[in-house]
Every structure is written in C-alpha cells, then in structure tokens.
Amino acid sequence: MSEKRKVKMGMIGGGQGAFIGQVHRIAAAMDSEIELVCGAFSSDPEKSILSGKALYLDPSRCYPDFNQMLQGEAALPASERMEFVAIVTPNHLHYEAAKCCLEAGFHVLCDKPATFSLKEAIALKNVVHESGKLFGLTHTYLGYPMVKRAKELVAQGELGTIRKIMVEYQQGWLSQKEDEDSKQAAWRLDPAKAGISCCMGDIGVHAANLAEYVSGEKITALCADLGTVVDGRRLDDDGAVFLRFSNKIRGTLLASQIAIGEENNLTLRLYGDKASLHWQQEEPNTLIIKRHNASSTIERSGIGEGSSFVTDAMRVPAGHPEGYIEAFANLYRDFAHNVKISRNGTLTASKFVPGIEDALRGMAFIEHVVAADRSDTKWHDLVTTHSPFKDIT
Amino acid sequence: MSEKRKVKMGMIGGGQGAFIGQVHRIAAAMDSEIELVCGAFSSDPEKSILSGKALYLDPSRCYPDFNQMLQGEAALPASERMEFVAIVTPNHLHYEAAKCCLEAGFHVLCDKPATFSLKEAIALKNVVHESGKLFGLTHTYLGYPMVKRAKELVAQGELGTIRKIMVEYQQGWLSQKEDEDSKQAAWRLDPAKAGISCCMGDIGVHAANLAEYVSGEKITALCADLGTVVDGRRLDDDGAVFLRFSNKIRGTLLASQIAIGEENNLTLRLYGDKASLHWQQEEPNTLIIKRHNASSTIERSGIGEGSSFVTDAMRVPAGHPEGYIEAFANLYRDFAHNVKISRNGTLTASKFVPGIEDALRGMAFIEHVVAADRSDTKWHDLVTTHSPFKDIT
Amino acid sequence: MSEKRKVKMGMIGGGQGAFIGQVHRIAAAMDSEIELVCGAFSSDPEKSILSGKALYLDPSRCYPDFNQMLQGEAALPASERMEFVAIVTPNHLHYEAAKCCLEAGFHVLCDKPATFSLKEAIALKNVVHESGKLFGLTHTYLGYPMVKRAKELVAQGELGTIRKIMVEYQQGWLSQKEDEDSKQAAWRLDPAKAGISCCMGDIGVHAANLAEYVSGEKITALCADLGTVVDGRRLDDDGAVFLRFSNKIRGTLLASQIAIGEENNLTLRLYGDKASLHWQQEEPNTLIIKRHNASSTIERSGIGEGSSFVTDAMRVPAGHPEGYIEAFANLYRDFAHNVKISRNGTLTASKFVPGIEDALRGMAFIEHVVAADRSDTKWHDLVTTHSPFKDIT
Amino acid sequence: MSEKRKVKMGMIGGGQGAFIGQVHRIAAAMDSEIELVCGAFSSDPEKSILSGKALYLDPSRCYPDFNQMLQGEAALPASERMEFVAIVTPNHLHYEAAKCCLEAGFHVLCDKPATFSLKEAIALKNVVHESGKLFGLTHTYLGYPMVKRAKELVAQGELGTIRKIMVEYQQGWLSQKEDEDSKQAAWRLDPAKAGISCCMGDIGVHAANLAEYVSGEKITALCADLGTVVDGRRLDDDGAVFLRFSNKIRGTLLASQIAIGEENNLTLRLYGDKASLHWQQEEPNTLIIKRHNASSTIERSGIGEGSSFVTDAMRVPAGHPEGYIEAFANLYRDFAHNVKISRNGTLTASKFVPGIEDALRGMAFIEHVVAADRSDTKWHDLVTTHSPFKDIT
C-alpha cells in the first residue's frame, strides 16, 4: 500500500509548561508509528525553539512560529517533510493555524473544541473540503476500546430502541478561586481565548460528542441551566441540560468544573427497551449491561466479546489496565494510518477519527447551550447552519 | 416516663398480596417495641378479616372496614386499645383514612405521598393541628444511619457552603408494557388512584425529600421535562428537573421508572465549597466525602464517627450490613418512641420522624413539577400555599 | 397442617449488655412468626429477671436460671408453653444448656460454635438423637439469599467441576490491646470460656462452614499456621490454613481478628473448570460469576434467577438492600417453620437449618486446625470421630 | 550532566507474534527518551531480520542473532551505538544473553524471572559486578505510582509496625487444556524453557517481589502447597504459601493460573498496628487505607499526597487513568535516566529500578517454594546463597 516509513508530525503549541501538548506527544510516540520532526511550540519564538530542542528535535526544525514552519517544511524533500500537524494551542488560535496548515497542504489533527465559534467552524469546514486534506479532532474519549464496544453493542441492537441518554462530566479542578492561576485555567476562563463558554466548551462538548457517538443519534433540541458558581468569573463553570435527540429520545447532560473532589468523572448511560449500558471514564475497561428481571453483564476490555473495531484499540491482555493515554494514542494511530493511506493520493479515512462534522456539531452545541441558558423559553432547536447569536455570527 | 408496655398499632390497607403493607409490619415488629393489635386490611370486608387472621390477630380485632375499627378500638380499655394507625392504602384513600383516625383520637403514621393532591395535604395539615395527634410520613430513606450522618456532616459545616445538589432515583420496573399488570403498578399508573403523576409522585418525591432533608435547604423554583415513555400510559414514567434551592443553590433531580435494569438507584450528591458528599441507597452503609486536592474519606456505618443521632439508628456492628427494612424500622421505632412519650399527654416529637410539613412539601413538589413540565416557560416558583393548577385546587 | 399460632420461644443468655442475644431477638421478631415468651437471660438471677422485664415479658416467665425456666415452662399448658429455646451464652455453657433443654423436651436453636470441645459436640449429637427434638445452629451466613443462590448454582453444575475453594474472614476489632476489655472480647480471649481457639473458633469456623455449605464438599485434611499477634493473649487472633476437600479439591482459609480496619469481611470464591463464583458478606446481595474468555455476570438478589429456595429468603424487591439481620431472621423463620411442623409429632426438618452435623464438623475443624498449627508436619487429616488432642478428649 | 540525545536501545527476543516484546517496545517509546536502534528479535535469523524491518529499523541493524548484534554495535561510533539491551526471550535464554551483553560492555534491562535457576542468578550477579554495567529487571508492578506511594506510606510509618502481609495473584488464562497451545503458554509450561515452576515462576515471583518492595521486609521462611490442576501438565499452575518475613511478620501468598475468570488480579494487603493498606493492580490508581474505629481513606494517583518519588511516575492529572503500560514505561524511563547518568562514567543508579538483588531473591523464592511443596515438613528457610535442590545447583 504505502511507503514503509513512520508518519512525520509537526506540532503547533504545546511548549514547555503546557499540559495537553505533552499528552499529544506521548500519545503520538506510543506505538512507534509517528515521528515528531518539527514544531512551533509557542507564540514566543525563543520559547518555541527551546521547547523543540528539549524534545531532541533537529535544531533546524525548531521553528520560531508556525508560518516559518510551514515554509521550512514545504522546502524539504517529500520523504523528510512533516506530513501532518498537531494543533494544541488555546481555542482562539485553532482556526487560523488549521486554515494555514490545510492550505499549505498538510493534514491537521486538532485539539477540541475545534474553533472559537460556530462561525469559524463553518468556515473551517469549507477550508477542509477545499484543501482535500485530512482533518481530525481529538475527542479522546472515543479512543477507548469500551466506548467503541458500547457503540458496537448499540448498533447491533443489544439495547433495543434507545429511550433515554444520560451523560455527565463532573470535575472539581476549578472549584476554588485560587485554581484560576494555572496556565490551563487562565485561558479557559478568559472569553477572549476560550470563547463563549468555559465548562460547556471544555467538557460539556466532550459529553455531547460521546453521547452522540455511542448512541448514533443527534441532539436536536435543548434546554439549559448554566451557572457561574465561583464569584468573579465571566464564563460558566457548571451546568445542566435537557436534551432531545433524533427519534424524540429524551436525555440529560450534566457538567461541572466546580464539583469539588471529582477528578474526571465522565459517565455515560444509555437506556433502551431491551437493556441499558453503563460506562465510566475513570474505570474505562469495564462496560456494564443491565437487563430487565435478569442478571447484568460485565464486559471487560480484552475479554471475548467485540469485533476488531474494538480489539484493535487494545495493546495488552485483559486485566492489564489501559487508560487515557492509550485512548489518545488510538486516535493518533488511526489518524496516522489514514495519513499513510493518503500518501498515494487516496483520501479515504479508512479508520474512524472524529473530524470536521464533530467540530461543527461541537461548536453548535456550545453556542446553543449558552443561548438557551440566557432565554426564558424552555426549548431551543440545535442547528449547525448558523449561530443562535446575531451579534457573534 | 411512660407506662411499661409495647406500643399498640392498627393498620389500614396492606391486605394479602399488597407489598408495602407487609414491609410496614416487618419494620414495626423488628424491635419488639410495637405490637400489631388490629386492622382493616382491605376495602373488601371479607378479605380484610382473612388478612388479619393470617397475621395471628385476635379475630375480634380483624375489622371489615376502618370505620368499624375506629369504633371498635375506641370501645376498648385504654391499655388495650390501639394507639396509632399505619395507613398503607393507595394514595387516593390516604386523606380520608388519616382524617378519620386523627379525628377519632389516634396518631397516624402514613405511607407517602401523603395525599392525592396538594389541596388535600393543605386540608390534612389543618386536621393534624386541630387533632393534637402525631402525624408521621414514612419517607423511609431518612431512616438510614448514613443519611442521618450526611445531614450531620452538612450541619457541622464539613462541606462548607453548599453550591450544588444532585439527586437521582432510577428504577426500571415499569420499563415494559407487561409490567403494568401487577397490583403495585396498576394503581400507580391510574390517575384516579395515584393522582397527577406516577414517576414524580412515587419516587421523585422521595428524591426531593431526601435532598431537602440532608442539605437543610428548600426547593424554591424548578424547570421540568417529564415523559411518558411507554405507549398508552396516562402518567409520567420518566423525568428530569432543574432545581433552585434556598440560597440560590443550583440542583438537578432525575427520576425514572423505565431505566431498564436499574433496581432502586437513589443517589445523592452534595457539593460544597470545602468538600462533597456521595451516598447511594443500594450501598447504604457507605458515605464518601471527597475533597479538593486531597484524599477522599469513606465513612461506614458503625465506624467511629457520628453522634447518637446516627448510631442509635444501627443494631449491629460495622460490617454487618443493615438495609432497607432496618431504615424503615427506624422510622417506626422513633414514631413509637414519640407515641410513648405522648401517653402522659405531652406531644413532644422528641425523635425526628418526617411529618405533615414533609407531606405538604411533597405534594407541592409533585404538582409544580407537573405544571412546569406542561409550560413553555423555563422557571416556576414552588409554593406550598396553593396548587399551580386552577382546576384541581 | 399445624395449629394457627405463633411459635413460642424461650432464651438462655443474652441479658442486658450482651450483643448477640439482642440480634437473636430481633431476628426472631422480624417476621412475626415467633413470640419470645420467657427467658433465663443471665447467670446472675437478678439481672436475668430484670432483663426479661425490659423485654416486656410476663414477669412470671422471667426466670432466675434456666433450670427453673425448664420446670416452669413444663408446668404450663402446651398451648402457652415455650416450644424452643435459643441459647446465646458464651461457648462453655452451650453444652449443658442444650442438653438440659433437649432432655426436657424442648427444641434448641444454639449460637455457634456449638460446644466447648469436639468431645462435647460428639456427646451432644447423642443427646439430640435420643431426645427426638430439633437442634439448630445459627451459622448466620447460610441465611443470605445469595449464599443459597451460590449453593444452587454449584449444585446445578454452573461452575463445572470445582477445583479450588478460597474463603477468608478478616476482622480488625481485636487489633488493639485495649479492645480486649469489652464484654464480647473478654470471654472470646479466655480459654476457660471460649475453648481452644479465639480466631478460628469464632470466625474461622464460619468460613469453613460456608465453604462446605456452598461447595457441597467436605474438608478432609489441613495444614495450619496460627498466630497470636497481640502480646499477652493466650489464644490465636490470626491464622491461615491450607485445605483439602473431598475430591482432592485444593483450598485456603484465611482468618484474622487483627486485620486492622477490616469490619466483617467474609469472602468466598469458588473456581470450577467452567466458571468461578465470588461473594462478599459486606455486599451480600451481589454474586459475581466469572467465565473463561467471556463476560462476567452479576446476579443480584431479587432479580430473575433463583428458585424458591433462594427467593423465599427475601422480603423486599431487588435494590432494597437486605442484610445481616434478615439473613439471621431467615434461620429463625425456617427453624420456626420446622417447629410448627413438629407440633403434630412429625420431626421432618422441611426447611434447611444448620444442625448437629454442622456442630460436629465445626468443632472438629477448630481442634484440628489448632493441632495442625502446633505440629511440624505439614498435613493432617480432619475427622469428626475424635479429638486430635489426647489430653482434651 | 549528560549529552543531549535519546538513549539508544537494542533488543534480544520479541519477534513477530511475541507478546511481551511489543509491550517492552511501547513502554520504551512512550516518553520519547529512548530510541530502539537495533535488535536480534528471534532465534530464527530470517524472522529476526524481518521483525526488525517491520519496526522501521535501519536494515543494517536488524541482526540475525545477538552475537552479531553485539559485534556490529561495538563497531559503531559511540554516539550511534546502542547503549543498553532489553532481553525479552523465554527464561532459559536470559542468562546467556545477559552475560554476553554485560561482558560486551552494554547495560541490560531483562524481563523477569531473571534466569532459569538460582544457580544462574548467583552467577549472573558476579557477571554484573565484574562488568560495571547496569542491570535492571522489569518487575513492572513496581512502576505503578500507587505502589510507590504504598512504599512511601509504609516507610513513613503510616501503618505502624507491620503485622501481616497478604499478597495474591490470580489469573485464569491457563484454566483450560486448550489454552496450552498459545506461544506464551507453550514455553511457560515446558520445564526446559520455563524452569522448575510455571505459576510461581511466572506470577508468584511478582507477588513476592511486590510484597517485599512495599513492606521493606524480606521473606525468611515459607511453607508451600502447589498444585497441578489441569491434567498432564508438568509444572504447577496453582499454589498457596505461608510466609514469614523479617521481624517475624506473618504472611500469605496465593497465586493461580487456573482461577477461571480472573484476569490479572494482583492484590496486596498490609496490616500494621496503626492502619492497613489495600492495592489492586486492576484498579491501580487507587490506594485504600483503613484504620481502627475511624473512617478509611482513598488515595488516588494525582491527588495531593505523595512526594516526587510518586508524582514523577504520572503523566496526566488525576482521573485520567494510567495503567500497566505507563507503569512499564516508568521502569524504562528510570532505567534510561540511569543510563544517561552513566555516560560520563559514573555508575550511580540515581533512580530506583529493580536489579540483580531482586533477580537473586526471585529465583531463591521460586526454588524454595517448589522444594517446600515437595516436603512433608512444614517450614523451610529461604536463603539466596544456594539452591535447596542438590541435583540442580
């Protein structure tokens, strides 16, 4: 099929001190299928170069900014040149960076949420389509084997007709005023960098994405109650949402960053007319299926069930816990697989990686939740064609 | 203090085949402080008498109906006469039975919800006050030691200022059409017997009561999304509610009877600015306290912590699980204690048992949730002074 | 079948301050099938009488000692007379009390271990057989619904051929020197009252009994390592045992009273060639079945599976936790059932209650474990015909 | 300190189809501190070379056997040459490979158990000491953050004086006859390749190592009961051991490969006189501390507690599960750190990695357990100076 060499990756953002950039690098390195070859790791040119050197990169490929990176890499022979770019900056920089990379002919794997606004996401979709390049979005939680297994069970009809979808994402890391000083917190709470929402934009969107992915249904309307619990914040740090999915399925989404003592409690429950399904991110290798007047089933990753769609996402046998980084690495491995395929010109995403449609739906979710919260009317339709806010479209 | 003899109890409802009546009797018998002496167990006189005999009652005190019971018992010497009546009929009969008992001079311990409507609850409150008799309401879950411990921890300020209250009650026993035929299901789904709501009236009201009890806060406003998931039903079998408590505390209440595979999953989570508290009815002897950037604590019933308010609610040492029936028995034991105290004329409820205020708030919750669900407006104030429905006030 | 009246019970031991006597009374009262009518609650005559009065007994049936109780009750009309005696004294008094009751024509339900020594147990077996009366032994844990379900699953061949039996019983209540002062601890650590062993005699014997009951296999040989961890004690407070069961099945039994922080952690695991079974007393309503390269099953009490042998042991629906007291009450209810049956002269134990065979095996287990611990040889056969100790036979 | 380049690694064993070799490679790659540069992946020269190419290695460094690798690498400039060798063959080849590598001047990181026999381990110790090179042993479970935290808590005296150590390792992957055909099973059940033991040699040794590491105590004597449960096997597949540790601490070690339905259930419990500690490999990010008559504590990786000894072993914040591969990668990262330090001639193992002493103790444990099982005497001292078997020393 494709040439026998690792996939070459560049990175924008993720300089020293950043959290998520390092996670992306670990995930990319894990399976030895991807090689980080260059980067523009910071908006501060000096810090950008230093960060690259600390990662053992060739100094000539530690660029001061991403425009120089795009030029420098384009000038290299195809076999040495980076093939895709991982974008791990704060939200407000995603669109510009992704646009430039795609237009320069590089595939893009972008951190979520995809853009600063729905308007940008709509624009990005056009850029992606015109570029003919791959665009991936790191909705990490879709990389877990048991999330894939959950999707498979639903698709196979194990739950029967879905009646009710409950998803929640509880964190406590922003429960204190003093938590706001960290690098990760500062930009997430700043409307100029994070966009219109903190809690819903950062984690609510993960929950919505997970619920849609596993159920195969789309959110069509919502009613929201967001809150800013810690004084002085300008964005939401807590919220609850009633959902309607396609096929009139009823649902709820609860998310918080001030749920003190919670770590990263993302939990999905789907109730059908034949069975229900329960998954928790903090114990990711377990899936519980409950039935009516019958015993429940515990499925564990690596044990018996599941097609290759599921088992390909595991590296070690059952009982050897795989976690968040492995889930993340699955997205990278699958994206790299697609990049390899595309080397000969084909653009078939043969492995599933969340992409521009998830980007669009995510941004639409965020803006409609915030708009619904501000309204006295109960229900609001969710559309991806335009923003509910006149002033920000 | 009071005379040395067991407290004598009569019962209305709970004839052969009824579920909850038998639970009341087991709870009453458990601590050998209460003696069932008479009953009118069914609206069918013959069945009523047979039921009493099967319970080893004196045949002369197996009454064909509750009016004859009130007359018959009144005619007995005080030392033999029943002292209180347990009412365990379907909802629509509670008010009439409770009113007659109270007016005949007997204390009443009534199953929940207290009445058929908020209007009846308001009327009942007057009856209780005029009678000078004790009125208790079996909100069973308040009888658990660790629920009491949770209340104590909140009151002691262990959680700091409460910011967020999450309660949910998931059941699956009505998830199938064919589940409707059982005796328990039939009346709960019949508006003429259950009242305006099935899911919220049967279990939502427990969740609301538990949240208010432990937090010490009152629900002041709500927004509701109820559903009738199984075709052909006339009442809700699933629902979600946004809550506002006193002090602007934000909350959510989720309840369902169609959550397939769920048994009796009542879960309470309280988040303060210092710590959070987690309790699940299905594992009732455990309470988890989570903190910010610090280890969590597992409190177990019978281990160290807790004042006598908590430890009095236990019968065996830690590690010997006590359950639902013991929690129920705690209400009975405490009510019997109060009855004993009142023998000499005092009416001091020295032990806490949920009562007429819980009755009123419960009925107000049910009616406002249903009204809010029917409205296009998001938020609705909760008041106990009148029904939100003109036609049913 | 039998006359329509409650079964009448007397009690020996269990005076004020005793723990287990009160548990027996609660268990007996719970289902309103048994009536406590008399007792000799203490070796101190005055305390005995006071204890009875505090239990609302007829003063004429609060006896100063058990001999007077046997005489007094025998003099009453058959319909008023006690029908069985619950023996809840320390171990060293069991034999004498049981013997007298049986010989006086009363059935006996005795706390475990049955006697002070294997020699006494052998003698008691003869007394039981000659008396023609019922003898029950309160191996409480056999009363749990899911223990019965476990036995049923094994008997049905769900696990295939049993290969390995692991049972453990961890407690921490004697982990401190100062724990020795309580009434419960004092006699258990006193060789004159408890017998030859503390940990193995008090809880190891429960573990052995549970393993034999569920598996249907008998312990045939053992190798033991007992310890006295807290200085100054004269009996074991910790121990480990290798087991051989019938059919050469390999097993282990671990027990401790100094396992600090443990409550009452009795855990059973059975491994067959088709599946394994896992049960924990602290979460008694759950049974887990694990299989080879296949998903596991969670069985919950009240959900679907199980014959009436199992479901008769429950009082409330799934999700309403039943616990230790309910398990205890199941033994009482079943024993009372057998007592009723016997009223007309039949002595068919139609419901299973642990009895004199369990008594014998329990005492044999205790003595052989202690003997094996004292030996330098690894393996020792377990027999019920005579003690391994010459000096104490 | 040391030159700024990745640490270069070669590998012996781990060709296509091998399980553990791939895990080693993933662990080595994860943190981008180590670069796999060469290998002799199979005893079949052709397969060895093909395996290397599939890993994107320079064809000139895909060697047909490890002797050629040692020669080939020695001939390269120091800055390109491999710096250490990972040995991932079956047990019987470890010693020869390790000896050759060390004598050729390369550091060695070896899979466990270290050698085929205690005699070889003693010899290897001499080779290591004479070589002046680093020798690491991949006792993976020591790489978990919460295992390090456990060790830290014990060392800080949180448990008080240790009284009792319970470790168990239950697997079910060899429970069926037909499980014996896999590549992993075949050599483990073959005495010519695995050595004197299957279950104890493969996993019992992990359990013993973990218990010694966390407690800081050494096993001094033991009594064993091993079994060969599945017919026709020549080595043990199940076993139980009584342990004595230094300071007369009592302990038990239970291990099985026929515990059907078990995945990789390695569990450690330490009981002191102040508190106890509980850790399970299948839920590795949680550590529970239980106390006497006081609430328990849940420590979670990434939450508050723990020195850098613990926190350095984590990559992502609390609630983002890290697992087996991350634990493995911690050993690799720490070993690579030590390799870097040694570049300038120093041989200070500044980061802890299990080494030759663990190798020796592990082999001594295996041989003494097998010898003890074959003896009729109960207790046997454990020494590392010579084998208990005359014929195999």
From TrEMBL, chains A, B, C, D:
Molecular function as annotated in GO: nucleotide binding
Domain (Gfo/Idh/MocA-like oxidoreductase N-terminal) ranges: 8-137
Keyword set for this entry? Signal
- SUPFAM superfamilies (alphabetical): Glyceraldehyde-3-phosphate dehydrogenase-like, C-terminal domain, NAD(P)-binding Rossmann-fold domains
In terms of superkingdom, the source organism counts as Bacteria
Locate the GFO/IDH/MocA-like oxidoreductase domain: which residues?
148-277
**Pfam families, per this entry?**
GFO_IDH_MocA, GFO_IDH_MocA_C3
Keyword set includes Signal = yes
Q: Which Gene3D superfamilies match?
A: Dihydrodipicolinate Reductase, domain 2, NAD(P)-binding Rossmann-like Domain
Q: What is this protein called?
A: Gfo/Idh/MocA family oxidoreductase
Query: Species name for this entry?
Result: Alteromonas sediminis
